[in-house]
Fold each of these.
Amino acid sequence: MFVVIEQILGSDRTPFLMRSAETRTIVSEGKECSVSPLDTIQRLYAGFAPADLPAVLAGMAPDIEWTEAEGYPYAGTFHGPQAIVDGVFIRLATEWEGYQAVPDRYVSQGEEVIALGHYSGTYKATGKSFRAPFVHAWTVKGGRIVRFVQYVDTVLVQRALQP
């Protein structure tokens, strides 16, 4: 099996990632550990909390397909990490105060990971807050996130956007 090694961040003590068909192996300071699809998704959410964009993007495949639910403010399908940053993440950071996506539990089987959780935040333009449950469906292949689909009660989100 062919394995690709790449450095994901710029510091001299940065872990290297080795990708294989089913798990990603992190090699740091001579130690190795396998990273399952569930681990990959949990690391992504851990990066959301402190707004650590390099950590969030590190697990994404270059050709990731990211689908925001119809009726959500950023509805549509985005292809590639930069499109996601431009179409979703920058807008979340600039249009909301205290926006959060918090997973409460996970269900994982093979390459598929489902996160059940809730969104919350205050829309800056209206000053209105919301809290809405979500389901995120993730597909991880070769240690990289290749697909994301969002399910959310968009009515609860839309109420925060209305004056």
Amino acid sequence: MSRSESPVALVSISAGRARVLRWRDGEVIQLDLPSDVPGRHKSTSHVRHDPMVRHGGSGPGQDEVERQRLERIGQFLARVTHAVREDERILVVGSGRLPRELAERLEQREHGRPRPRLIELEHAGYLTDPQLRARLLAWAGHPPRRRKAAPRRQTGRLRRDVGRAPERERAEELEELEELEVSLS
């Protein structure tokens, strides 16, 4: 099987979800994996505290919240790793640390295999589904066909100028110069 015929997968991952796109037998198949990883909590603004009262007592500590978040990230990465098949070449796309961690997990799974598969990491911001499909097809060796843009419609004076031949423009310029000379004399 040549490179362009082997099964290919593209994984786009963020903390909110992962999208796994596969190229098999000339067809693109997409799998969406939602995440239950909580977002990072941001400060709501300045909160006044009584300096005589010590912190601690209400709600989980900051370390515990972050520990739970990291645990859920680990579970999510395990689900995504399990969703990728053993025989596919993989392109991992995303921003932040999750794509790198996923690529590392996939490489660890490959460790010790006689013929490890190709795993590449590409940093990119959010990509739409059509953009992901185009990246997948290019990765599989079948870049999408590019369409030519339709000719722009021109209006007003520009449209009249488009069809003129250079000789005609030159003749008009000469006529204008002759009229100018006649008016000056």
Amino acid sequence: MNTDRPEHHWSRLAAAWPGHLPRRTIRLEHTAAGTYDYMERRLAECWGEAVYAVLSPSAGGSGRQVIVTRVRDYPTGVYRVPSGGIDHGERPEEAARREATEELGLVARVAAFIGLIDFHHIFAGRELVFPSFAFLLTSSGGDFAQRTHDEIADFHPADAGELWQYVDRLRSIGGTMQAWGAFRSASTALVADFLEKSSSGVG
């Protein structure tokens, strides 16, 4: 069996976390070859991505804040819920835990499967599908200072309201980065929606 198939993991994860899990399809029209070509290269390196929303250790157990990050070349004031590629042969939840360790220096476990977004990236008659699996993680140890990657320039905890503000900023990005902003806003919005519903007892 080809374990890199999104359908296989969607069925498996939906069975492990029963409930009304969202699965969304989003079409992104790229206006520049560069951003589409980047996604094409990413799909060659990995078969999708895992979005890892780590509950902030500083939230006092309230579960209302997750860690958001920014990379040095992001536009000013832009943060998002981090993500990382799912290696070929790797499960999405395994990728989420691994990325949390590599990027944030944390030992984490999966607390919930949040949902799946099937991104259809389109440019000049070409199209590729890039699945994005989102998870809620809790930290059981580690140290931010021990992260092994230096791509992240800054990070801090954010509640659902702050996440929606970052969603708006990502959606407002224009020019050749517009498709990227829409791409990154969608997974952050999925997490914000999950936090709101879980706090209100909906879902």
Amino acid sequence: MQLKLKLDPSMTDIPATALRAREMYFDHATVRAIRAETGLSLDRLYYWLDGAPQADGGTLLPPIPRRVVVVRRSSRPARRAALVARMMRATEMQVHEIEQRLGGAAAPAGRERDARTLAVLAKTMRELIALDVLTEDKNTDNADDDDAPFDIDELRRELARRVDQIRRRRDDARIGRDDGGAKGSADPHLLGRLGS
């Protein structure tokens, strides 16, 4: 279907790109394709589709009715799964930042804050994984074919092992600097609440 326009000869100030954009829109081209071909901004495109409204209330061209945009809503489980995935990535980044800080020379107050943060993150991960498993169970026909059951205690042990390993490396490096390389006694104030 072609758009046939009867233009008044006095309307010479209408750009060819505007006329092409109107024709493409009328032929059901996507707004993205129209903008790519004509180079019009979104505002200018709709200005011309609306007939180039004038200050006196008239238009230079007949307005083209705008299309009804139907937005397909994603399903609730899909949105939940996406949210769980984003939160897991954020949690992983937070744990990585804490690991980096613990690997360096963190102040005792910072270590206490990091320990509290790790506790909250562990709880959050447990809940996210439970929600993720629940979502997967609903989305699969056979929910019993998992490779291995999730073990929160194993996650806690692994997290504690990693934190201890980082602390030991940091403390060994600190003891080595303070004693001129000699190992042995450590200043209890440096170790803070780490305990052994």
